[in-house]
From TrEMBL:
Keywords: NAD, Oxidoreductase. InterPro entries: 6-PGluconate_DH-like_C_sf, 6PGD_dom2, Mannitol_DH, Mannitol_DH/Oxidoreductase, Mannitol_DH_C, Mannitol_DH_CS, Mannitol_DH_N, NAD(P)-bd_dom_sf. This is Mannitol-1-phosphate 5-dehydrogenase. Residues 499-520 are annotated as: Disordered. SUPFAM superfamilies: 6-phosphogluconate dehydrogenase C-terminal domain-like, NAD(P)-binding Rossmann-fold domains. The keyword Ubl conjugation does not apply. Residues 308-415 form the Mannitol dehydrogenase C-terminal domain. It comes from the Bacteria. Its EC number is 1.1.1.17.
Amino acid sequence: MSEAEAGSGRVAGGASRPVGLGALSAEQRAVRDARERRIVHLGLGAFHRSHQAWFTQHVAEGSGGSGSSSGSASGSAPWGIVAFTGRRPDQADLLSRQDAVYTLLTRAADGATAELVDAIVEAHDGADAPRWRAALADPQTAVVTLTVTEAAYHRAPDGRIDLDDPDVAADAELLRRGAPEACTTAPGRLVDGLRARRDRGSGPVAVVCCDNLTDNGRMTRDMVLSLADEVDAGLGAWILREVSFVASMVDRITPATTDGDRADALALTGLDDPAVVVAEPFAEWVLSGRFPAGRPAWETAGARFVDDLEPYEQRKLWLLNAGHSLLAYLGLHLGHQTVDEAVGDPRCVEPLEQLWDEAAAELPLPADEIAAARAALGERFGNPRIRHRLQQIASDGSVKLPIRVVDPLRRRLARADGARAGAGGVAGSGIGPGAATLLAAWWLHVTGDPSLVADPRSGDFSADLGARDILRLVAPDLAGDDRLVTAVEEARARILRLSPADPATSSPSASSPLDTGVPA
Ligand SMILES: NC(=O)c1ccc[n+]([C@@H]2O[C@H](COP(=O)([O-])OP(=O)(O)OC[C@H]3O[C@@H](n4cnc5c(N)ncnc54)[C@H](O)[C@@H]3O)[C@@H](O)[C@H]2O)c1
Ligand SMILES: O=P(O)(O)OC[C@@H](O)[C@@H](O)[C@H](O)[C@H](O)CO
């Protein structure tokens, strides 16, 4: 659609038009009408709409999908998504009022473009249990995608689902009784929907996790199977036989939409869209696993299918996501609001580079590939048109930190132990200043005003937590390591010596070792 510069918030020439099927071009309308309801999605947030829906939208014309359900050939028909909200009905109501068509505003450092996305063909409240069960049981459904946040899987330390969690326990009880009410957790909804599919005899399906988690396909399978085993004797065996759990690394920075984004989209398109989604130009999707009932030809839109996902997911989680978390906690402490502000502050950039050095040493990738990823991240984080709020990234740290920083730290510590035993590896204690700074900044974050912290473990936070208490929450196996406790205490002291935001050093235009080359 329009490639004009966004910014004024006014539509040239007057009145705006509503978004919806009527706003699609004739060509786009024909594609939309031909879409087959083959994908079900849970978690209708901003990211699903900037990423999986966008990839589905950009599948090359005529390539449709592979495979079929119910014996009928799927041919080259484009695929459509039946999407369900995770917790509240708002987004479903909003999108339904505009035929689930919405504007994607893509913000590059030097300007913005807008396009209409029509790959979602229905939007529903996830609490509408009959509709959810019918969608999963539909023989046409071949793929189920998920973006429900890291905390929504309710994983216990033993790797099974956390049955002590009251929401999980309530869902287990509903499922045992075969009650008509909706489950409230994501694993509960999946078990409920997959049971409906088994009961209807609709055959195999692929579940694709698109949340920022390590080995997210296996983790989703483990949560679903451990809950299924609790509630229905034969269901686990059916799931193991018929359902594949695909792992995926997903990447596209997608901040929460603001009024300014909606005004800019309106100026570009002339369409008044309350459901605008904003994202950066970069998009990456790497998947690993089987699609027993077929899938869209996402590779024609740039997705990659690989045998071993681990290096891709480690690169993403340990560089981008760990970097985001560091900037969030340290940046907020220093008075910054957004990622681009924080990477303009050398006091944030120095520990960020240290964190990346430490992660890079653990990544099983060629040095030039890591260097290219870091350079690209410098540009992406510095994009002044993506106003990604640190407060949004800061949520749920107790679930995110074990994946983003503790996993690589654990590997580094093991290598340091190896070096001491004469096996080669990291010299010294193995505790890098980058990781210690991230843990210390989170410590300050959750003890500053615990009542304001959004986190599933917020009940465990209090102002008097010590370094060892903090480690027990995110790395219980390392909480006994005195060297780590000391390193985190020292990092906290270093952070406290930094003065709060200093305009001379904290503006996005201040010189920074990241040197993104991005205009302020
Ligand atoms: N936004 C990004 O830049 C981005 C990029 C890559 C991956 N992701 C992944 O996508 C997830 C969602 O991001 P978003 O930007 O769409 O956020 P969002 O706030 O726009 O939407 C979150 C969605 O998750 C659902 N949800 C939240 N908690 C839930 C729970 N306990 N049970 C069931 N559903 C729940 C919400 O209802 C909503 O549909 C992230 O947590 C992350 O794992 C996001
Ligand atoms: O979405 P979350 O809460 O998992 O994490 C916040 C950000 O780090 C994340 O959304 C990144 O922007 C994203 O992973 C980029 O692909």
